Amino acid sequence: MLNLGIKSLWNRRFVVTLTVLSIALSVFLVVGVERLRNSAKDGFASSASGIDLIAAARGDAVQILMGTVFGVGSTGPGIGWDSYEMIADLPEVNWAVPIALGDNHRGFPVVGTTAGYFDHFRHSGGQALSFAEGNAFADQGGAVIGAEIAGRFGYRVGTTIVNAHGAGEIAFDVHDESPFTVSGILSPTGTAVDRMVYVSLEGFDRLHADRQTGADDPFAALDGVSFGAEQAGMTGQEIEDLGEAGHGEAGHVRGDTDPHEAPAEHAGHEPAKINAVYVGLVDRGAVLSVQRAVNDYPAEPLTAVLPNVALLQLWSITGAAETALLAMASAVAFAGIIGMVVMISASLEVRRREFAILRSVGATPARIFSLIVLESVLITAIGIVVGLASLWAVSVLLEPYLAARFGLRLGAGPLMQREVGLVLAVLVAGTVASVLPAARVYRMTLADGLSFKL
Amino acid sequence: MAGPDEKAFEISSLRFSWPGQRKAVLSIDHLELARGERLFLRGPSGSGKSTLLSALAGVIEIGVGQVHVSGKDIGKLKGSARDQFRGDKIGMIFQLFNLIPWLSPLENVLLPCRFSRRRRDRAGADPAATARRLLVELGLTDPALHVSPSISLSVGQQQRVAAARALIGAPDLILADEPTSALDDGAKGQFVDLLDRECAAVGAALLFVSHDRGLEAHFDRVIDIAEINMARPHC
Fold this sequence. Notes:
The structure holds two protein chains of two kinds. By secondary structure, chain A is an alpha+beta fold. Chain A has 13 helices and 17 strands. In chain A, the strands form three sheets. In chain A, strands 1, 3, 4, 7, 8, 9, 10, 11, 12, 13, 14, 16 and 17 form a 13-stranded mixed sheet that branches. Chain A has a two-stranded antiparallel sheet with strand order 2-15. In chain A, a hairpin with a 7-residue loop joins strand 10 (164-165) and strand 11. Chain A is elongated and about 95 Å long. Chain B is α/β, with parallel strands linked by helices. Chain B contains nine helices and nine strands. Chain B has helices at 49-57, 79-89, 105-115, 117-122, 127-137, 143-147, 155-167, 185-202, 225-228; strands at residues 7-16, 26-34, 38-42, 64-69, 72-73, 90-93, 173-177, 205-210, 221-224. Chain B is globular. At the A-B interface, helix 1, helix 11 and helix 12 of A face helix 1, helix 2 and helix 3 of B.
């Protein structure tokens, strides 16, 4: 029977090939979209995979996550250095990295942190950050930039950059009195890290050290101008200027320099305020108790966020888009199967004679019915194989590009459970759909009999 | 008169009309064919010949009467059992377009062996060899023809392949529905000769339906359907 089915299909190989290709395209899209979606989700969920907790001023978990890991929005009021020390001193805590936010470089967030950040931060399923060029900042004038920033503006190690106050795209207040020299460029990660500028806490605070006015004071820029004359070290160096002066609404906390008290781990600098603390634990099992300890800290209202939980929460907000994608892919699959039913149905009239011959040699209508279903299953199965094979090939070809550009890792590996489900759904749909033309054949063969006159 | 086991088929008191029509197409009191006998059934088109063949092949539900093939009342067989019985006991040759286009002539000949275990068992240890022998005996001597696309064959060659398919596995009864009508006169006689010879070789009875009186001499017995069918559907 299988032999008959294959030969029958081979006889109509041109139309069958087109049908197989349409099914293959369906499978390619359905599984591809699912894989992209999963990869995006995984990449997203592992945007901060090395971090067990993010502590910040009391606030919403998603907002804190957005502000810290993605550099979007603000984390609300800052937290005191004492809170950082409290967290860092907890026995369960292995490492704690302070994060200061609020400035931008040409619209890209500037993060004040310590060199420990580059050791502890993990992305895309636990990969450590690595330097494509140079290394971490050694002093307060150094800056580490993400791959996208380096690529977009053509920065190299040694380039001098100037940051601006505020987190928005448009810089109102340029800290051109405090330039940084790029000390290192990170390798592409496909995450928000590519679009961030890292400076030392000390350097970060230096931007604001001279400023005495409050962050929301619209006239602060005027003060800034008067201090501008004091800054030095710009001559002879390439200055990346943002131009506009002004003062922006800001989520960032103005730090005050505090030259004394210099814990070794922070390169001798202790800011008054930071925005968040990335925490790594000795034992991840203790995460809930540490979270409670942070949340219950009496001296300052804090929130400790489990990044993975908050990331999934954030992802669920974007769920509508992924559902839409999957719906589109399913529609393509549906169209492919309809195409197959049309192809098979269209061939039935021509094949009536064939069925009469098969009946004359003893084939029951049920066997002819199953021949039609078998042909559909074969078409669908071949389509699935072709679709998966092309997806695999495309994955292998595009992997380096997608990983670097978008942090998407399609992976040419075996099918995930859900993907198997989708493929099976296509196969079942193809089989079920073929029952329509097969039922017609069944009725036809019964009515035609051996219809000698055809 | 031969006993039931010695008959290829026996029709008694058959009345048949197509569903929804009152007028009978077939009304045959008695017709029988002995094992190995070759009967020429003559009649113009529309005289109920094809309906009679359908009744014998068990593809129509006969209303009144009995049709026994190889001693079996096929009216009592149900659905797929009847298809199976047909595959086992009957070989058929149609007027035209006998071959499945996507199978080679050899595969076409072997088709009954796919669907009938009896035919496969009776086709010898190597059915493919038997099929090739039949094709050669029927005049397709070039082995390349056996595996070439069926549609590349001439009509005469196709009819010979159809005959080989009907004959393989030695069915009890061969039904041939005007198999020579598309052949030229010289080929007709040759085809019927070959068919006669092979039917005799496998011991099959042959019911040959045609309106071509020139072929009557090849057969044991000749009947005009008008003599036995009282329904006269063409009137």
